[in-house]
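To: structure desk
From: M.T.
Subject: fold request, one chain
Message: Could you run this one when you get a chance? Sequence is below, nothing fancy, just the single chain.
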Amino acid sequence: MLSRLRFLKRLAVDLPRQARLAYCLMRDARVPLHTKIAFGAGLAVIVTPFIDLPAAIPVVGELDMVALSLLALRLFIAACPDDVVNDVEQQVLEGRSVFDEDLRGGERVATMISRRFDHGDAASHHQALPQEPATEHTGVGA
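Reply: Done. Structure tokens follow.
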């Protein structure tokens, strides 16, 4: 039971870190194209509903998709050039990786969209309020 909890904790910590690293490596031009294609194909086989992977491979039947995904991530990272992996890991640690840049870009887009909706809601709310009829004042005693 304790080993299973340790595995789940490691999975919860390791999977996001490995996924971020793999994302950056997939976007890095120094990683060979055939390595990227093999990783993409591996993930496609894992997530495709048309192939019953556990029935096709007896040993894999005990693993679930998360563990298979982690295995695919680790194999992909291991197949990448070591100097590229080290460089990208350093970029991730420093917060200047492609993942971090894309995340910041996504935040900017989400903020722009949110502001546009807020502005649109404010304009529609303003139009929906009943307007008081304009009264014409011509002066004192009119």
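Reply (cont.): DSSP finds six helices and no strands in the chain. Let me know if you need anything else for the meeting.
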